[in-house]
Amino acid sequence: MSEKLLHIAGLGKAFGGNVVLDGVDMAVARGEIVGLLGPNGSGKSTLLNIATGFEALDRGSIVFDGTPIEKLAAHRIVGRGIARTFQLPSMPTRMSVMEVAMAASTARHGVWDTLLRPAPARQAEQAARDKAARLLRELLLEPVRDLPAAALSGGQKKLLGIVCALMGDPQMLMLDEPTAGVHPNLRNDIVQALLRLNAAGMTLVVVEHDMHFIQSLCTRCVVLDRGRIVASCRPDELASNERVAEAYLGAAAHQRAEAAQEAFA
Ligand SMILES: Nc1ncnc2c1ncn2[C@@H]1O[C@H](COP(=O)(O)OP(=O)(O)O)[C@@H](O)[C@H]1O
Ligand SMILES: [Mg+2]
Fold it and tell me: Looking at the structure, do residues 259 and 177 belong to the same domain, yes or no?
């Protein structure tokens, strides 16, 4: 199916004088697993932040599942079906892993709800508990479900971030560097978990640097360089794509030049 689930057009964003996204056009079809690549500072996280309502855009449009979402607040975008994870997840110190997952549920009820409509509220709570337990199992967090979330390793926090994102049954999941800081053994487990989600119908957009991860997961890669898209190709075409090489080599040369300037300053 070639139906576009997400359609970003003419997206522009600057922080002060720093133009970070410069007319980005990007479409994601239902069922795709798109890798969003590019050197550090090329605008990947900013693109995710804007698509999920955590940052406002300066210009352009974003349509998700047929509805413009660029003016919606983050929680409304979640309600429309886009969930996300963060590059650096932070966890509440006093809650258990299970409690954090439960807190991310959309089936939350206040005390009045529980008192006034006890049966539906309890049913919803039980359904959320069952869902949290299933997702914790699928993302390998079952053994640590009663530990404080803050005690998890960096990699486990990333997995818990995915669990939380999935509690609302999104149509699309956007992941910001899901394997950065994650033990290599765990990376393949994350790939397998994401492939299972995709097989069940979820569309994925993944910001990632690990090439092995990208190759084993993505159906297509989009490469950003200084706020512009310079390539859209299959993962196995990345290595031979000149624009991609230029983006990474250019960034490396730029960083070397900056380092040299600092060293001689
Ligand atoms: N909230 C912000 N305020 C000011 N500058 C920002 C902010 N967020 C990102 N930037 C800048 O935007 C550029 C792109 O950042 P980012 O989107 O995080 O890149 P990437 O995720 O590709 O490494 C960087 O120069 C960064 O310093
Ligand atoms: Mg980033």
Answer: yes
State the closest ligand 1 atom to the C-alpha of 176, by its place in the atom list counted from 1: 21
Neighbouring residues of the ion ligand 2, judged by CB less than 5 Å: 44-45
Residue 65 placed within a domain: yes
Enclosing domain of residue 34: 4-90+169-264
**pLDDT over 60 (residue 203):** yes
Question: How do strand 59-64 and strand 4-15 relate by DSSP bridges?
Answer: antiparallel
Q: Domain total for the chain? A: 2
Residue that the structure tokens 């569309």 belong to: 203
Which pLDDT value is given to residue 7? 98
pLDDT tier at 125 (50, 70, 90 boundaries)?
confident
106: confidence class by pLDDT, cuts 50, 70, 90: low
The total of other beta-carbon atoms located within 10 Å of residue 79's CB is 13
- The DSSP output letter for 143 is G
Residue 110 CA, ligand 2 centroid: distance in Å = 36
* Residue of the CA atom closest to atom 27 of ligand 1: 41
Which pLDDT score is estimated for 104?
A: 87
Residue nearest ligand 1's atom 3 by CA? 15
Average pLDDT of span 53-63: 97
Q: How many residues does the chain have?
A: 265
Ligand 1 binding residues, C-beta < 6 A: 15, 18, 20, 38, 40-46
